[in-house]
Amino acid sequence: AQKITQTQPGMFVQEKEAVTLDCTYDTSDQSYGLFWYKQPSSGEMIFLIYQGSYDEQNATEGRYSLNFQKARKSANLVISASQLGDSAMYFCAMRESTGANSKLTFGKGITLSVRP
Amino acid sequence: GAGVSQSPSNKVTEKGKDVELRCDPISGHTALYWYRQSLGQGLEFLIYFQGNSAPDKSGLPSDRFSAERTGGSVSTLTIQRTQQEDSAVYLCASSRRGRTIYFGEGSWLTVV
Which of A43, A70, A116, B92 has its CA 20 to 30 A from that of B65? Predict the structure, then answer.
């Protein structure tokens, strides 16, 4: 089974509107972390937001918020007030804490296009 | 600079040659990761270093790939006898407490 699932096809959003990018995960660990990264066409991986499995509140970072639903194992990224510069590939990732295995496992990514 | 630094940024090599890719993590970061991303694909885990612990090498695709980290800082990823399927972007990342993991800009490798 895939650890991180991102199944949305290419997403489109109108400038200044909000958009939700979906991510579901699979783990048997109680302690884990969830990450979202943005990858523009330049190729760099830009860290956006982090949610720990024991964090009581949903993470927020500026225009980014993470809708964390632990029971459903989902960690959707919400981008408010979309900007043209938000057009990029977005990756969800999970870091499990099982023994020495603390690698990040990435989903396949979602392409977001912001329309003017 | 303050970020993760990778070199070279671009490398074109002939099939069968060895290549070395370097990663200089953010100062004070004890964890260091190597990932590979082929064109239009997601990120494939290669290897993970954490402090003085034995590295997690479970993602290395073959024995042609190796990595070391000297003095708990700089890391070198070595690919021996390169093949065309090794062409990809090799991304390095570092972390201190695990809640934020920062990536470098990557080393773009092309094997011709």
Answer: A43
With an 8 Å Cβ cutoff, are A101 and B56 in contact? yes
For residue A101, pLDDT over 60 is answered with no
Cα–Cα distance between A78 and B112 in angstroms, integer? 41
Query: Does the distance separating the beta carbons of A45 and B42 come in below 8 Å?
Result: no
- DSSP 8-class letter at B54: P
Q: Exposed, middle or buried: residue B64 (CB in 10 Å: 0-12, 13-18, 19+)? A: middle
Q: Would you give the distance in Å from CA A17 to the centre of its chain?
A: 18
- The widest CA-to-CA distance across chain B, in whole angstroms, is 39
- What is the predicted pLDDT for the residue at A51? 94
Res A100: pLDDT: 43
Of A43, A46, A108, the CB nearest to B106: A43
Look over chain B and give the mean of its residue pLDDT values, rounded to a whole number: 92
